[in-house]
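Collaborator request, handled under Task 6.
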Amino acid sequence: MPVLADRMSQLGTETAFEVLARANALAAAGKSIINLGIGQPDFKTPDHIVEAGIKAMRDGHHGYTPAAGIPQLREGVAADLKKRHGVEVDPNLIMIMPGGKPTMFFACLMFGQPGTEIMYPNPGFPIYESSVKFSGATPVPYRLSEENGFAFSARDLLAKITPRTRLIILNSPANPTGGAVPKEEFDALVAGLANWPDVMVMSDEIYGQMLYDGRQHVTLLSYPEIRERLILLDGWSKTYAMTGWRLGYSLWPKEVFPHVEKLAVNCHSCVNAPTQFAGLAALTGPQDAVHSMVEAFDERRRVIVSELNQIPGFRCVEPGGAFYAFPNIEGTGMTSKALQTKLLEEAGVAVISGTSFGAYGEGYLRFSYANSTDNIREAIRRIKACLS
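Structure tokens returned to the collaborator:
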């Protein structure tokens, strides 16, 4: 038997992929499955982006690129951030990544070690906690509550900081809750962080262009007082329906950038070249598809919230962003995991247990409404029939 390093026992997983595998197995066996579990747009990547990737391959972009990404894409990211947020950023501090997860992982490896603490949202994206544990740091969750629309409380978050805190992970709009944090909470958090000048902040803003009811995205880039300790995570997967392209980016403080570049060289060398040219076309080309997707998600959001609130034992607050609903299912008398299994096996509806996103997710399920309105309505019909 191989003898694994102890640290391997600290790695978690992403349950959505496990549920997807089980759902696919059931579908292959002939069972009708509606998948409201996986968190990816059900739209195709826009044609002009696909064509840019194909052209890059035909033009001979088959080799290595700089570890930080091709210069024109880094400049394109900086220009996009300026256009969307009115903030000047240095392209030389932008790191092109193979998706969003490497930024999370690298940040935790750089600032986490035994004897330190890293704070993260709970319920939250499971890779946060997994990366923290792997780094050797102590994971410190801060609770996102239904009563606050699943936004963090700056007061509660600041109260958890200790001299051992090295990094705080933020995510708004959020996975799995769809919660969007109001600006006043960010204002209070940034003001309070003045008392903790050595604490880094990683802001996961991957759903920043998916907001509803007139909400405006609050980016941590708009707070110059923390720019020198801010790591911004964003990318193409959700906004441009490019999950399988594996393309993301992050912006790092000047003193930290050489270290993340070194990690990239040691880990993945660089992001594949044609994908980077496709990413550039996404940023500089027409944005019609982005707006159309968000409009479709907004329509589905209204449908799924209304339908979920009609299921006995369910109650669901309206998500402010992303494409997830996170209903409270305590009224069913079942645990989240048991209900997840029941709905998949008996109703043919794939959803994710709230506990897949942390202990505070007990009593909730995550529904992805990145699916058609017809499928959403049919899924709710099946759930009602199953639970009756």
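The cover message to the collaborator said: "The mean pLDDT is 96. Residues 197 and 272 are 37 Å apart (CA to CA). Please let us know whether this matches your experimental observations."
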